[in-house]
Amino acid sequence: MPTTTLDDRAHAVTHAERAVLRGIGRGLNDAEIAAALATSDTAVAHSIGRLIAKLGLRDRAAAIVYAFDHGIVTPGPKPASPGSFRISALGPLRAWHDAKPLDLGPVRQQALLAALVLRPDRTVSQRELLESVWGLDAPVGNVVPVYIYRLRQSLRRGDDRSDSMIVRDRSGYRFRSEGIRVDTAQLDDLAAEAETAHRAGDVESAISALSRALGLFDGEPLAGLPGPFAELERLRLTERRLSLSLRKAEWQLRLGRHAEAIGEISASATAHPYSEPTAALLMHALAAGGHRAEALAVYTRLRARLAEDLGVEPGARLRHLHGAVLRGEDRP
After folding, report:
1. What phi and psi values does residue 175 have, to the nearest 5 degrees?
2. What HEC string does 26-75 produce?
3. Which of 175, 187, 208, 284 is the 20 to 30 Å CA partner of 166?
4. pLDDT tens digits, one per residue of 55-96
5. Which of left, alpha, beta for 312 (phi over 0: left; psi -120 to 50: alpha)?
6. What is the DSSP track for 213-258?
7. Any residues with CB less than 8 A from the CB of 25 and at least 6 apart, and which?
8. If DSSP codes are grouped into helix, strand and coil, which group holds residue 166?
9. Residue segments in the chain with a per-residue pLDDT below the cut of 50
């Protein structure tokens, strides 16, 4: 049976894990690595634990040696920071260098940037970008290189014009996410942090993490951006927001915080008037909080809306819940 060497395991290290190793090799602590990679301290700590186990290392000191031995970090002075960048897609697409807003150009140019930012560290071909932004109406000419050129000028990391967060290779263009704070990545990290806390039995911390995750949204994701990619991402992120909101409400109900849960779910129900899972959770929260008549009213309104607008009846789960509330069961 073949044995696995350290060099073999090195090939399994992902791009994100190499970035963590680079931070370790530079002598950064978890908080400094988290700030550089625009993620949470918890996510960094978990990554370090996985790396040490994956590479068969003893401890953090061994990870530092590994980073130097494998060329992930080279000896020399620590480079000066060119300043922090932040990109927001959980609302209108915006970017800042330190506290200064950046001009991202016309909406098609912004949509092209979104098609790169939301596929971080992945090379996207010029054809893919055309289809992502223009769909079947893709123009003829060099519009993609022109837009990329403008974006690279706006998104330079330092004084060096070549040091942009958008790079080109033989296959297309790639957004380099290292050191860039992107709110969609923060959303993923906070959602993972919430699930970790929940599995550990710390429901309060889980709710807190989801509150911070939901607080990243600033209206409709990628608001106003054209193109098939932006439309699909807008739908995906909107559904993610609803899913996280309902998850948070479920945990609030588990702690008996019915009033908070009702407020959370009511907002989601207003934004998603045809969502049966949202209506079901709202009915459950109202009934559990002693508001049986209001819970029944939620069902009546949704049933009428579905019948009038879509020509369908509520699903089996919602009908069952309605019957349970009618019977006054303690746990509908």
Report:
1. -90, 120
2. CCCCHHHHHHHHCCCHHHHHHHHHHHHHHHCCCCHHHHHHHHHHCCCCCC
3. 187
4. 888 888 888 888 788 777 765 544 434 458 899 999 999 999
5. beta
6. HHTT--SSTTTT--SHHHHHHHHHHHHHHHHHHHHHHHHHHHTT-H
7. 63, 64, 67, 68, 72, 73
8. strand
9. 1-11, 77-82, 161
| DSSP state letter for 163 | -
Residue reference for tokens 């009546």: 300
State how beta strands 166-169 and 85-88 pair.
unpaired
Sign of the Cα torsion 240, 246, 252, 254 reads negative
Q: Would you say 237 and 199 are in contact if contact means Cβ atoms under 8 Å apart?
A: no
Lookup: tokens for 15: 């791009």
Q: What is the pLDDT of residue 159?
A: 52
In this structure, what token pair is assigned to residue 183?
């709110």
Q: What is the pLDDT of residue 50?
A: 83
Q: Which DSSP category does 81 fall into?
A: P
